[in-house]
């Protein structure tokens, strides 16, 4: 494949991706959202965040091995406590990162 054909293919893929995403943004305001659908959408960001974080906490699957030596477990417990106490996403992320760095330094 020549360089020109490759660049044209990449530009076409980018344009198609943009048009698909833009259609939801532009057309979504014209469609009325039911209260049930709006309630459903409130759970999407926490579900995505959980899906991104879970593989880091459970690297070998659901087996809970080597908990005392795993700094991610300690950071998870601290972040969970901060999340329950403050209900602030920013405070939870900051506390979790600080706890992870501290646990990595302590357990290293």
From TrEMBL:
Pfam families: AzlD (PF05437). Keywords: Membrane, Transmembrane, Transmembrane helix. InterPro entries: Brnchd-chn_aa_trnsp_AzlD. The chain crosses the membrane at residues 6-24, 36-54, 74-101. This is Branched-chain amino acid transporter. It comes from Dechloromonas denitrificans.
